[in-house]
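Re: your question from the hallway

Yes, I did run it. Sequences:
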Amino acid sequence: MANPKYAAATREIPQATDAGTLSDGTKIRIRAPRMRACSLKDEKGKLCAGHLKRWYFFGDEVKKLYGDNAEIYRCERCKSLYLPNPEEQPRSGTLSF
Ligand SMILES: [Zn+2]
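Structure:
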């Protein structure tokens, strides 16, 4: 074994995680906390960095997966979908419904 002190080379930068793919090939990802730009890379390894914008026009497939009023964001460049990070939800959850 090498010196374990230097084994952890990965930096702790929050990353978006893949959540699946729609039937049309659209990627679904879960945002890292406070993430505002797309972190997908193209086949050349270039960062997309498109802005994530709230998106309301998702189709039935997304509705089936995440509900009619799902909070969905979409990258304005590569059109990948992003879900909010669960850790980002306000903790003062008012149950007003
Ligand atoms: Zn993108």
